[in-house]
Amino acid sequence: MLRTTLVSIVIALLWSAADHLVAAQGQSVRRGGVPASQQVTCDIGPPATVPIEAAAAGLTHCVANFDFSQPTYAVPAYNPTRVASSWANCFGENSGIAGIVWHGGSGGIPAVSPCDIKQKVDPLDGSTVMNLEWRPEKPFQKGGGQANQVSLMTYDQYVGTPSVTIGNYYVETINRIEASCPSSACPANAGGPNDVYIYPTPGSYGTEIDIQEFQTNALNGSSGTGVAAGNCAFSNGGNPCWSNWQSTNPITGVSNYSNLDYHTYGALSTSDGKTDKRVCMYIDDVLQVTKGCLIEQGGAVGQPDTNFLTRNMIIMGASSNQGNAGQPIEFDVKNIIVWSCANYRQAGAPGMCNGTILSTSTLPTGQTLAYYH
Length: 373
Description:
By secondary structure, the protein is mainly beta.
């Protein structure tokens, strides 16, 4: 979603894993040439297995496997003494240090909120995750918007340099919130956003894609799952690509969905560099959106995103944008895995990882599967 709005509505339908695999076979050679399910090395982090969504579009180069269970992330994000094992740069304290990928800030602004981000063991399943924590007693700003976000991104806004940026991509993440917040403690919109999202680097225009975005506000007002959506700017008429917060527009193909449980969320963005961009959104390898994949629209409904040279950063954060959540917000992220093509670092069009052919098909659900490869 846009950073200050509440998650809203869109119908979600199914693309099965079997359909994914059929699409992936025989279509990954143009840019990637690596089949789904094969393990490959990553430029950052441990090896990762090529997902079927990435293989279908030929985006089979592993840019980064941010596996937050690794000892790389054992120290808290904020280390003002610049300890040797620091992996983040919350407030500019580690700018310019080689190997620092994550920097404080959110969607165009440097960090001003406490950098309460640390590795922990999640009691839900015993896994080691990255915990992003927003606490009401900390010095946040009432009505402060993005200034209230506890977040990190792959762009150093303190010195204006990128650490990891991508053109076309498939990005997936496994995460959850630990608890929902009843309306007695959290007014409407107070519980978020808590999300992993793709955002244009400063000075460039493009489409913000929220792979998933949570509010801890309890969906039924008292307990259970919080509010959840996947957002694609104006690509779906200004509505999210999927959501769980209206019964007439449920998430489908995912049984008993709750954002208190771990799920895999993904977004595929492809283009030929001249016609349009296409975005496909997933939960647990199931295609969402009634129409299926959409033409990206970043500025307004009916205005396709035609900036074919946009570089994108990855951002993760937890927040009460209004600054008035009445209980802590705990957002746990197991991983973020970034896929593109091997020349993604190159400047200009060669580094966009464009395809040349638009592959389109109609699934049994009536959805359109459409991506460039």
